[in-house]
């Protein structure tokens, strides 16, 4: 039930109670009878309002529970998606690291070969 519906129902009940009270006050009855009718209508209206309050509270609680479950589900999906993306990034970084290690090893090997060739060239001169 939306907030507007609850407000409308509350307004109708309040209007009915006020209307009944005014009607009873203008009725040509004794004061005791009039007071009993007012008290009876007030209790009836109070019970109806309490019933509506319980119903609205229950509905709000149900909606809050549903919203919490939806949020937790979306959070779980988001975390799962982020986990997969993080794994993809780690795989890409590991591949790049391996590529850099291979290049470094080749550069070191080329450097050693160049040094040896340089020493050999000096020695054969």
Brief account:
The protein has helices at 3-26, 31-123. The chain has 125 residues and is mostly helical. The longest helix has 93 residues, at 31-123.
Explain the layout of strands and helices.
Blueprint: H1 3-26, H2 31-123
Note the main sheet.
none
Helix content: over 70%
- Count of folded domains: 1
Low-confidence stretches: none
Give the strand content.
under 5%
Number of strands: 0
Number of helices: 2
Distance between the termini: 100 Å
Instruction: Briefly note the structural class of the backbone.
Output: mainly alpha
Average pLDDT figure: 84
The gyration radius over C-alpha positions equals 42 Å
Topology as a string of helices (H) and strands (E) = HH
Shape: rod-shaped
Describe this structure in words.
The chain crosses the membrane at residues 6-27. InterPro entries: YtxH. Residues 35-66 form a coiled coil. Keywords: Coiled coil, Membrane, Transmembrane, Transmembrane helix. This is Gas vesicle protein. This protein is mainly alpha-helical and 125 residues long. It has one domain (3-123). Helices cover 94% and strands 0% of the residues. The protein contains 2 helices and no strands. It has helices at 3-26, 31-123. α1 runs antiparallel to α2. The relative contact order is 0.05.
């Amino acid at each position: 039930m939306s907030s507007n519906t609850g407000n409308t129902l509350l307004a109708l009940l309040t209007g009915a109670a006020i209307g009944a009270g005014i009607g009873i006050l203008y009725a040509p009855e004794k004061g005791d009878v009039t007071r009993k009718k007012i008290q009876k209508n007030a209790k009836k209206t109070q019970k109806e309002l309490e019933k509506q309050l319980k119903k609205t509270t229950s509905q709000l609680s149900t909606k809050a529970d549903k919203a919490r479950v939806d949020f937790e589900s979306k959070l779980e999906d988001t975390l799962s998606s982020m986990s997969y993306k993080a794994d993809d990034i780690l795989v890409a970084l590991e591949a790049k690291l391996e590529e850099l290690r291979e290049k470094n090893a080749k550069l070191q090997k080329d450097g050693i070969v160049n040094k040896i060739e340089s020493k050999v060239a000096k020695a054969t001169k």
